[in-house]
Write a structure and sequence with these properties.
This is Dicarboxylate transport. It comes from Kosakonia oryziphila. The chain has 8 helices and 58 strands. Helices cover 9% and strands 60% of the residues. It starts with a helix and ends with a strand. Among the domains are: 106 residues, no CATH class; 142 residues; 162 residues, no CATH class. With 879 residues, the protein is mainly beta. The strands form 3 sheets. The protein has a 52-stranded mixed β-sheet that branches. Strands 31-32-35-36 form a 4-stranded antiparallel β-sheet, with no helix packed on it. The protein has a two-stranded antiparallel ribbon with strand order 57-58.
Length: 879
Amino acid sequence: MKGKYKAAIALVLLLILLPLTLLMTLAQWVPTIAGIWLPVGTRIALEERPRFTRLSLIIPDLRYWVDDCQLAWLQNAELTRPSRWQLHVGTLTINSACLNKLPANDAPSTAPRTLSEWQSMLPYTWLTVDRLTVSPWQSWSGKLSLALTPEVQHLSYNGGRVQLEARLQGQALSVNRLALHLFDNQSPFTLGGEFTLPAVPNGWPVNGQMQSTITLPQQPGLVDVDMEWRDNQGQTIVMSRDSSDPLLDLPWQVDDEQLAINDGRWNWPYAGFPLSGHVGLKIDNWQQGLDKAQISGRLNVLTQGKAGKGNAVLTIGPGRLSMIDSAMPLQLTGEAKQGDLVFYAVLPAQLSGSFDEPQLTFTPGALLRSRGRVIDSLNIDEVRWPLAGVKLTRQGVDGRLQAILRAHDNVMGDFLLHLDGQAQNFLPDNGEWCWRYWGDGDFTPMNARWDVAGRGQWQGNTITLTDLSTGFDQLQYGAMQISAPRLVLDAPVKWVRDEKKPKFSGALVLDAGQTTFSGGSHLPASQLKFSVDGANPTDFQFKGALSANVIGPVQVNGRWDGERLRGQAWWPRQSLSVFQPLIPPDWKMKLLDGSLYAQVAFSAAAGQGFEAGGHGVLKSGSVWTPDNEISGVDFVLPFRYRNAAWQLGTRRPVSLRIGEIVNQVTAKNITADLQGSWPWSEENPLILSDVSVDMLGGKVTMQQLRMPQHDPALVRINHISSSELISAVNPKQFALSGPFDGALPLWLDNPQWIIKDGWLHNPGPMTLRIDKDTADAVVNDNITAGSAINWLRYMEISRSWTKIDLDNLGVLKMRAAIRGTSYVEGKSSTVNLNYTHEENVFTLWRSLRFGDNLKSWLEQHAALPQVRCAKGEKCEEKQ
C-alpha cells in the first residue's frame, strides 16, 4: 500500500508541476508549437514571458517575422472572458512591405471559401486595438473595435484622419458613416450606404447604393454624391446644390478582368472661369491588386475666354500605381483660354515612387507657353516656361526653373525679361531656390531705354535679394531731361519669414545725373539713399536722405503697413543761393541772400490717394534782376493737400512780406495773406486779405478778395503822389503834381467787368502843366483849339472827380470833371473841364504813349470859356 500511496503522490505532484513548468516556459515552447501551422519562413517571437492572472492571460510583447522582416508587432495584449471572449490590445503595428515576402502556397487550401462559412466559424468575441498602425500610412492610425458573432459583425474605427462605423449581417453590409480628412483645414469627406457582398468574398459587392454629402476644397456649397450599381455596372453622380449640371457623372462597368469608365463627364465652375470635359479610364487586372493592375485613360479639359475655346487633353498610362514604386506615364497636351489669355502646353511626365512619396518628373520636350492680354494695355507677346527635368515631390520642386517674358504696352513700350534659377526640394519656406534675372525695354513716354539685372535666393524661410541694378539711359518729359537715373542695392534686401520673429531689411541708392530744364536751368546730380526695416514687405519703416550737390539733404522717414504709406520730410535751413542753378540764365536773375527750410508729412493709400501737409519758410530773401531789385522777402506757406485739392493756410494764413521792390516805381512794405482752398468752391472759398503796398508817396490797400466772388474787392488808393506817378510814366507832354485818393472795385470772375464804378479825386490842390512844345504844336495845328489850350499851360486844380470803368476786354473808360484856375500871361481864369477818354489799357501798357493820346484829345476837344480883361483889372470869365 505504501508503494501505491507513493505513486499517487507522485502523480499528483506531476499534474501540479507540469502546468507550472509549461506556464513558466511559454516563451520557449509556444513559438515552436505555433510554427507547425505557420507558413514556411515565418515565425513568432515572444520578447517577454506571457503570464496568467486569476481572470486573464497577458501577452506583453509578440512579434511575427517573415524571414528578417517584422510583419506584425503586438504589445500589451490581454485575453479575458467576462461573458464572451474579449481580446484587448494596446498597440498593433503592421508593416505592409513584409507582405510581399510571404511564401506562395500552391497546395490545395482547406480554408472556408464562402462568406457564410467564414461567419459561422466566428466566436462570440470582442476585439479592441487601442492603436492600430499600418506602415507606410502611419498618419491613418486609430482605434479599432470589433464585436463578432456568427450572425452579426460590428466594426468601429476612430483615427485622426479616418472614422468608420459599419455592420455586416450575412451578405448585407451597412456603412453608417465613413469620414476621411483628406485636406487640412477642410471639412471631412463623409459617406454612408448599403451594399450586398458576394457569396465568395473575393470581389466587388454584387449590388450597392451609397449616398454622401461632402464639402470640396474651394467650393462654396455642399455637394451630394450618389453611387448605385447592380451586377456589373453602375453610375456615380456628384451634384452641387447650387447647380443643375452634375460636377461628375461616371457610368462604369466591372468584370473579373477590367474596371472601365466610359464617356464620363465632369464640370467645375468654381476656378474663376468654367472648366468642363470628358473622362475615360480602364483598369485591367484590377482584382490582382494595385501593384499588378494596368491603368490607362484620357481626360480632356474644355475652357472658354474672350480669345475663344480651348481644349487640353491629359493622357494617363498605360502604367501602374503601386504602394511601393509606381510607373505611370502622363502627358498634358493642348491649350486653355481664360479671358484674353491663351495657355499652350506640351507636358510629358513620369509619375513614380510610392503613394507616400510620389514623384512627378517632366521629361524632355516639356514646355508651357502663354500669350494674350493681362490688362487693357499690357499685351503678352509670349511667356515660356521650359520644364524638362523639373521634379515635383512632397519635399518640393527640384531642378532648373526658367521663364522668358516678351510683352509690350501700347503706351509704355515693349520689354523682355529672363528668369533662370535652380531649385532644390523647394517649397515656400522650405528647401532652396537661387535665381538670377535680367532684361531691358523701352519706356516710350519719356523716350528712354531701361535695363534690369540682379540675383537672389529663397533658402528656408529667408528670401534675399543679393544684387540689383536697374535704370534708364535718360528720362525726357517735355522740357525736362534726367540723365541716367539708376537704382542699386546699398545692402542686401532680406526677408526672414519667421512666424515669431519676422524680419525685413535692406538699403538702396537711387543716383541720377544732371537734370536740365528749358531755358538752360538745371538740377545738379542727385542721390537718394534710403533703408527699410520691419517685419515683412507689407510692414516696414524707411528712412533716407535726398541731396543734389549742395542742395539738401532732405531727410525722409516713414512707414508702410501694407495699405497705407506714411512719412515725414525735413528740409534743413539752407541759403537761397544754392538754388541758383534752377534759375534759367535768360532770366538774368541773381539770388543774393535769404534762407529756406520746410517740413512735410504725407500719407498715401489705395482708397485715399495722396495726402500731405506741412509748411515752408523763406526768410530775408533777396533777388536781383536787370529791371528789379527785391529785398526783405519773408514767405510762410502752411498747406494741406487732399483729394486733389490744396488747403492754403491751415492754422494761420499764407503770409507774404516784401521789404522793397525797386523798379520804375519803388514799392515798399508789401504785405498779403492768403487762406482757403484751391480749387475754391462755395463751401471752401479762397480769401486774399490784408493786401498793402507803400508806393508813389502813398499807400494802396485791399482788405479782402474772396473767390468765388460775390462782391467786388475794394482797392483803396490813399494819398498817391501824382508827380511821382508822372515821373515813373515819364510823359514829355505834361506834368502833374499833388496827391490823389480813390477806390477801385475789383472783379476777377465777372462776365463783363474788371473795374466797375471806380473813382479818383484829389484831397488837396494839384497842378497841371502842359509842355510848351506840346501846347505850341496844338496852337499851330489847330487855331480854334489853340486859344483854349493856352489856358491849360498852367492850371491849379482845386477839385477833380474821375469815374473809371474797365471791362474784361481791356477797354478803359474815364469820365473826369476838373475844376481849377488857369494862369496865362498874368491872367487867371476859372476852368471847368469835362474829360472823357476811352482806350484799351492792354495796348496802352505796351505803348506807354499816354502823353500823345492826351495831346490828340486836347486838339479835338479843347474849348475854354471866353475871358475879358481890362488893363490893370482882374480878368473875369464871361458867362
